[in-house]
Specification:
binds nicotinamide-adenine-dinucleotide; 2 domains; N-(1-d-carboxylethyl)-l-norvaline Dehydrogenase, domain 2; Rossmann fold; alpha/beta
Amino acid sequence: MDGPIDRRAPEGPVAFVGLGNMGSGMAANLAAHGVVVRAFDLDPGAVRRAAEAGCTPVASAAEAAAGAAAFITMLPAGEAVAAVWREAAFPVLRPGALVVDCSTIDLATTRALAGEAEARGLVPVDAPVSGGIAAAAAGTLTFMVGATDEGFERVQPLLGHMGRAVLRAGGHGAGQAAKLANNLLLAATMVATCEALLLARKLGLDPRAFYEIAARSSGQSWSLTSYCPLPGVGPESPADRGYQGGFATRLMVKDLRLALAAARDAGALTPMGERAAALYEAFAAEPERARLDFSAIIQALA
Ligand code: NAD
């Protein structure tokens, strides 16, 4: 479902809770498209910045939710999403309202919240994102959506204001499942890409020559050809900027923990994911490294 994005306006104000690195850009893009965005964050500075970007500042998540057509969260973890949905949104949202979580959180919480929301006549949607802070600011995120047919139909215009691809993964929880599986794949291919580049160099190859060959051979991957972890090889990537910016290693560790927990619950075997997670955990133990882009894992292997 990667067709043209539906950009109809929602049928009322939209609540946006969680105005951090990602949510600030997303809320600003909604407002820029003419949506009335009631913005709340525990950090008053974040609310002030959202107001400067065209949102309506409010004093609590419940105030944002009252009478809203849609309620969106972009928060750090499942506990925060559950607390905000249950304590602020559920008591005041009108029946039929969309409840959309764009955070990356644990699958068990996503599924539990969807069940509770549906039981209250609300329309829950899990819509985690791919693309970092720059994509959130530019409105070019990819959304991976878990929803009913009705939920997907109704959430598309909203998400279309914040992203360039709105992809349906399946029913409730499927968006979150897709996000976790994708990031496990990304972590494992990044580690393998680092290994292969370093191996080629140890074997006497010029890494740029190896890159040109692997890029056109069966070893090709996004980690190699869009995000090469060696500076000076391939298109510009965080490696060329000292591993600054990009996708922080600490966030990759978080996503891997969530993916492995989901795998355990589902009885799935993930030996590569576990190895990648162990390497990332060890690398991120030092706070300076935890802040670097996740392709800096090459430093642990060099
Ligand atoms: P962040 O820490 O910058 O922002 C989170 C915001 O939530 C903060 O401003 C915080 O004050 C606010 N907050 C926390 N608890 C709250 C509560 N109970 N009520 C109201 N506000 C509350 O995090 P971020 O980088 O914006 O990431 C948000 C989510 O997006 C995470 O789940 C993350 O895994 C996911 N994500 C991040 C990236 C990225 O590159 N940063 C990429 C993809 C997905």
